[in-house]
Amino acid sequence: KQPHLAGPSPAIVTRPQWTSPEGGGAAALAHCGAGGWVMSTLNRAQRDKIANFQAVTGAPAKLAAEFLKRYSWSLDQAVDIFFTEGPGPSFSQRAASPLAAVDSKKLDSFFRKYKDGDADVDAISSDGIQELCNDLGISTLDPVTLVLSYHCHAQQMGIFTREEFSGGMHRLGCDDVAKLQAKLEELRQALVDRNACKEIYGYTFQFALDQGQRCLPVEMCVEFWKLLLRNHFALLDQWLAFVEQRCKNAISKDTWLMLYDLATQVKPDLSDYDLNGAWPVLIDEFVESVKSSAAGSAA
Fold it and tell me: Which among 97, 54, 5 has a CA at the least distance from the CA of 261?
């Protein structure tokens, strides 16, 4: 089943919560400058959570600590909010600056053109999204639709609420379909830029989930990986073959996020991969499989 902007999101199974080892100890967290805050002591569990947050988001320690403190040290919630709302001056904000003037009346007409026919539904639903994509000259399977959804802060596949669509168009400086079409190439570049794509990639997992669920079906992840990782992962084809053979259920957020680090931070020959690092088991098994195959070929 291929994921696409206008289509329904799939059934998802539950994944376990992240856990961090508990323990005592204290560490000083230095003052983070004007507007920063001071936390004189952190226990070991909190330090571990900061490290985990940094590992999956690439955020600096200060930002990791701020997010975790804001959400009562819930690692899952802090990471979710980081990827759905952004950390601050994110790719979304960088791409939208400087903003072109947006005419509120034109933007309202833009929204209404694609709005659901049901008067009680103040949103663009799947049919409207299909029509919008047709007018933009793209397929709903085009990965640029994920970038567009990211800018709109869309919460689920197959729908743009008025607030989401209007907010996204304001951020992009677009109040009609022609302006949005002219913006597509710029949005598409996010899929090539490693840092920008990491934001889109992290957002996509949450975007594709059904409400209340925590894992994505393997077949959906495979299609998203084809869309998002082709420019960034030298071992993508081997990974897809491995996952389709070895993983029959669903992919957790931890595995999803850490795969991007494998793709972009580890050498293609995996020579600098640390088997003792905090990698998900599935990724460890993949690396072992690739190295075993390479050793067998060399013998």
Answer: 54
Residues 278 and 24: their CA atoms lie apart, in Å, by 20
Backbone region of residue 198 per phi and psi (left: phi > 0; alpha: psi in -120 to 50; beta: other values) = alpha
- Residue 39: strand pairing partners: 29
Quick one: average pLDDT of 170-186? 95
Neighbour tally for 185: CB within 10 Å: 9
Q: How far are the Cα atoms of 135, 179, 180 from residue 185, in angstroms, in the given order?
A: 15, 11, 10
For the chain, the C-alpha Rg in angstroms (whole number) is 21
Q: What is the pLDDT of residues 32-82, one digit of tens each?
A: 333 333 344 688 888 888 888 887 777 788 888 888 887 788 888 788 777
How far apart are the C-alpha atoms of 201 and 147, rounded to whole Å? 9
Give me the mean pLDDT over the 134-139 stretch.
96
The answer to whether 44 and 247 have CB atoms below 8 angstroms apart is: no
Q: What is the pLDDT of residue 190?
A: 93
- CA–CA gap between residue 95 and residue 182 (Å, rounded): 13
pLDDT digits (tens, 9 = 90+) for 96-124: 444 557 899 999 999 999 999 888 889 99
